[in-house]
Amino acid sequence: MYTIGQAAQKVGFSIGAIRFYERKGLLEPAARSEQNNRLYTDSEINWLVFIKCLRETGMRVEDIKQFANMVMAGTATLPERIKIIQDQKQKLLDDIEGKKSQLVQLERKLERYYNDLVCVGTG
Amino acid sequence: MYTIGQAAQKVGFSIGAIRFYERKGLLEPAARSEQNNRLYTDSEINWLVFIKCLRETGMRVEDIKQFANMVMAGTATLPERIKIIQDQKQKLLDDIEGKKSQLVQLERKLERYYNDLVCVGTG
DNA sequence: TTACTATGCTACACTTAGTGTAGGTCAACC
DNA sequence: GGTTGACCTACACTAAGTGTAGCATAGTAA
């Protein structure tokens, strides 16, 4: 059994984040010690790793919650899960395109500055 | 003189966003009509366009506020302004790299799914 | 015994960049 | 006279946590 601090260190979350995930329903409420401190089993640590894994792909907490429920529900939900991951991938691709376009705008602005032409006068 | 609705349409902000920017100090409090409605001059429209221009590069509102102050202060602040834009550019590049790395993680996960190997068992 | 430090607890406020909603005012139109 | 439509203010809400206040408890040092 691990304390929340140990769990946090093991998984790479902050303590606050773990409590946050519990509050959000991503985790079952943790067992408590006599001192009312949260205790985590190896299985719960694995679950946290799983959450970390999804979170690092940029998936939103609410979506992870849905996803977790599907995993619980078994392999029947596999096609649906694959779709979610694919959607997430598309979202990332779109984000990257958006950023790239922002970058182009910025380049243009930078160029304008180098030419000493400010976007708008000083009023 | 334009109403807030006209200004919003002209510039491409929502009405709420314009009020928000005023509240945040990006805009001087607008003049008011007899009916207490905000009124915008062409110069203020230009200022809004300028804000839009920076916002579209992903610059944060607080930073735009600083930037606006510098523009007001004249060409002496030009080098500093160029630096801000360059920093912003670097931030965008970093963001893009981050997203790309998320994408790689996702690809890996997707592959794992296609191989019918789920990241974590069903507990 | 007392003090200090570390760790944990809860509950609340704060962040970003707005959006959405409730409730009110006003002018124009039918 | 009633009803849009555009505007006003103030407040709550969003995502994903972080930071803080105030508390309890355990272990260690003087």
UniProtKB/TrEMBL annotation, chains A, B:
SMART domains: HTH_MERR. Keywords: Coiled coil, DNA-binding. It comes from the Bacteria. Pfam families: MerR_1 (PF13411). Signal peptide: none annotated. InterPro entries: DNA-bd_dom_put_sf, MerR-type_HTH_dom, MerR_fam. GO terms for molecular function: DNA binding; DNA-binding transcription factor activity. Residues 82-116 form a coiled coil. The keyword Coiled coil applies. Gene3D superfamilies: 1.10.1660.10. Residues 1-70 form the HTH merR-type domain. PANTHER family: REDOX-CYCLING DRUG-SENSING TRANSCRIPTIONAL ACTIVATOR SOXR, TRANSCRIPTIONAL REGULATOR, MERR FAMILY. This is MerR family transcriptional regulator. The lineage of its organism: Bacteria, Bacillati, Bacillota, Bacilli, Bacillales.
